Amino acid sequence: MEVVYEDNHIIIVNKQSGEIVQGDKTGDRPLSDIVKDYIKEKYQKPDAVFLGVVHRLDRPVSGLVVFARTSKALARLNKMFAEGQVHKTYWAIVGKMEEGKCKMEEDGEWHTLENWIVRNEQQNKSYAYDHEVPRSKKAVLRYRLIAHSDRYCLLEVQLMTGRHHQIRCQLSTMGCPIKGDLKYGAKRSNPDGSISLNAHRIEFIHPVSKEKICLESSLPDDNLWQTLKKTVK
């Protein structure tokens, strides 16, 4: 486990693809339990360790996850996330885009995607529409091209709303499914079962100390991620 930041009130770790943030029906050991054990051992705490789950990342996604170490921090972080005071930036690798399929330039210009998303609980999947439909919620994100190779493009993505599988669903609807994301239209899986989506940067004002926190993840250690990183504009 890679700890990126910690103090008395919060701890931020770099989640690996395949890890679950919080326990689910699979029964697999969640990242929250691993963090609790880390705190218990490091600080020699004899009693149960408090750890609040503030937000989650999908299992196949990697990147930064924030946990609260105190109830005060948990309450304040929950409010900050709900009010959009925590700014998360994602990096996503998608297949090389055909001309005209995606509105994008190589100058790093930001573009906006707006859809109406419906979540299908049984399939654990979301569907995007270009107009409002029953049970839909508006989904907005911004993206720009920051690097590319002969076959792939690296996008920087900022969420304006927080919907189920929003980035995965909207990029797929745009015609650019995330590499390895079979659920949303990728042609083949990644060897490790991951999808090429990383919660790369997080910025917010510390809920207790009020200092500015700005952190970046270490990207997955595979050749494509590392090659694209070197050419980021």
Q: What does this entry look like structurally?
A:
The protein has 233 residues and is an alpha+beta fold. It contains four helices and eleven strands; from the N terminus they run ββαββαβββββαββα. Strands 1, 2, 3, 4, 5, 6, 7, 8, 9, 10 and 11 form an eleven-stranded mixed sheet that branches. A hairpin with a 3-residue loop joins β8 and β9.
List keywords for this structure.
single chain, 233 residues, alpha+beta, eleven-stranded mixed sheet, 4 helices, 17% helix, globular
Please provide a brief summary of the model.
With 233 residues, this protein is an alpha+beta fold.
The percent range for strand residues is 25-35%
Annotation, overall tally of beta strands: 11
Overall pLDDT: 93
Most strands sheet: 11 strands, mixed
- Global outline: globular
Gyration radius, rounded: 18 Å
Task: Describe the secondary structure blueprint for this structure.
Elements: E1 2-6, E2 10-15, H1 31-42, E3 52-53, E4 62-68, H2 71-82, E5 87-95, E6 111-120, E7 125-129, E8 137-148, E9 152-159, H3 166-173, E10 197-205, E11 212-216, H4 223-230
Parallel strand pairs: 4-10
Antiparallel strand pairs: 1-2, 2-4, 3-4, 5-9, 5-10, 6-7, 6-8, 8-9, 10-11
